[in-house]
Each structure stands twice: as C-alpha cells, then as structure tokens.
Amino acid sequence: MCRQKRGIISAMLMLLFVTMLSGCGKDKADVTMFIMNHTTLPAEVVDSLETSLNDQFKDKFTVDVVVAPTYSHQKLMVEFMVGEKSLILAPSEDIQGYVKNGGTLPLDGHFDSSQYPTGVMDGIVVKEEGDSKTNIVESHLYALPADALAGLKKLGLPADGLSLVVPVHTPNAEQSMEVMKVLEGN
C-alpha cells in the first residue's frame, strides 16, 4: 500500500516537472528561431540573441529562440517536416538536403543572391496552376551562410558551417524575412 502511494506521488511529481519544463503558461512567440549545432551554445549568448531581437521588434512581434541541447539529425528532420519554426539555423550540410527536398522557401525576393553564392542551390518549388500543384526543381537563394551575417556574428553566435533558412512551414514568411534582415546586419 505504501509503495503504491509513493508510486502515485512520484508519478504526480514527474508530471508536474514535465509540465513546468514544457513551458505551459508561456505565450507563444510570433517568430520562433530554432538553432541546432554540433556544439552547445552558452545560455547567455542565446539570451542575448533573443533579447536583442525582441528589442528590435518590440512594437511589431515577439521572437523566441530555441536551441537543441545536442545535435540530432532526427530532431532536425522533425522540425523541417512538421515543426512550426519561423527560422532554422543548422549545419550547412544538413540544410542542403532539406533544400533539395523542398523544405525551405526561396529568399531571392528579399536578399541579393550574388552576396551569398553558397546559399544558391537547386531545390523543389511548388508551382500552382489552377487547382493543380507541381513540384519543379529550380535554382534559387535558399540559405544565408551564417558566417556572412554580420548581425548574427555581432551577437556572439558561432557561425562556421551553419546556414539560416526559412522552412516551408513557417507561420509567417514576412516576419521571418524581417528577422533575417536584422541578422544579416546590412
């Protein structure tokens, strides 16, 4: 009987702990930037980035920065497939695969592709004609190499080997582009 009570109390405490960790009660930000790197990022760098972006967009929208504690190809795949992230900063070699499979939006209309030649790749674009949709492979600027983003480097984020993209499932492409412009720093 006593073991059963301890088990129930343990389960309730575990549930409470998981609920606290999941951020229940926290308002969802308008823009969420997901960062995955092969190394961990110091919390103060992440906090500095989030604070800086929220200060920049104070009267327009809110920004949340989420960092994966460890590198996981499976977690990155989930974020591209079904995640609702606005921006993803991840290793360039991973980004290339998601671009080729249509996981990112073209950036040509917002950024000068001649400034980011390594971000120009062949990727799938969905063309709509009437009621039908067709996947077409086209060359566009899909990724901004992090080492070319002055605003990102200024905030102390590691940039080597990372690229910044807007996933196709972004909740608001225009807000995502606005944040990218700030991170570009030009």
From TrEMBL:
This is ABC transporter substrate-binding protein. PROSITE patterns: PROKAR_LIPOPROTEIN. Residues 1-25 form the signal peptide. Gene3D superfamilies: Periplasmic binding protein-like II. Keywords: Signal. It comes from the Bacteria.
